[in-house]
Amino acid sequence: MGICDSTMGLSNTLLVMALLLYGAASVKSQAYFNKTGELPCLFINSENISVDELVVFWQDQNKLVLYELFKGKENPQNVHPKYKGRTTFDKDNWTLKLHNIQIKDKGSYQCFIHHKGSKGLVPLYHMSSDLSVLANFSQPEIMVTSNRTENSGIINLTCSSVEGYPAPKEMYFKLKTENSTTKYDTAMKKSQSNVTELYNVSISLSFSVPEASNVSITCVLKLETMELHSLPYNIDAHTKPPPARDPILWIAALLVMVFLCGMVLVFFLTLRKRKKKQPGPSHECETNKMGRKESEQTKERIQYHVPERSDEAQCVNISKTTSDDQSTTHF
Q1: Could you report the per-residue pLDDT of 129-178, keeping only the tens digit for each?
Q2: Where primarily located (predicted)?
Q3: Are strands 120-134 and 26-32 parallel, antiparallel or unpaired?
Q4: CA–CA separation, 237 vs 31, rounded Å?
Q5: How many CB atoms lie within 10 A of CB 41?
């Protein structure tokens, strides 16, 4: 009985060791978007087998080869095109580094180690690893889509965060006053890029602002392992919002102003035309001066020519008298 027990115990121990050596257990690893991820292969080379006698390779869950080391030399011929130029093998740690991680790289990977000897390929080790990919969301940002009005007291807010993975669990507003803190759950809108597979998320909220109270609003994005908070949006109770503006009243006021400006313009144009038609005092003075000057010149001409006409008349009279005298003498 004791011999059987010891035999079974030895068998179980050997089985566990075989499972560990062959890599039945799987490890989990994480990598960030566009960064470098590590795919471990926890091989313990207790026999100090040279890499020149080993064949080492990794493949993904679709049996596509990421990397192959054949008897100490890299063999890119068996590597799938999507992985070429993206891997680096660390011989000291038996770890494969996968660069420029994308969301589509998440999944299961396996490493295989074989001994290449006279008997052909002999499996030495196998291990699986699950790679998860993360992308950090941007800090949530609150934007005001419409300001509060004096009549309604309602404010509309939107909060958004972009380019993250995986999709967040929850997104909400947290409103804090001097006396209370309120959580506002709203429907989260999600959109995913067809190229990068990253998520953009946003929420919207319309709420009535409490009167005579300071309000601080924060947007919270809840992820699997952490929470992201936006900068607070503060509303001061002492700051009165601008009064509501009725567009009809503004249009009417604008039309009245245009009409009044037109009337003033017409009035000034009419007044200017009248001034052009009616000569001013200075013009009348000049006309009077010109009239007086012409009158004086006329008088001077008259005075100048009167004596001449008188002399002619005298000459005519003398000539006539002489003629008459001659006539008298003739008879």
Answers
A1: 999 999 999 999 999 987 655 556 788 999 999 999 999 999 999 999 88
A2: membrane
A3: parallel
A4: 46
A5: 25
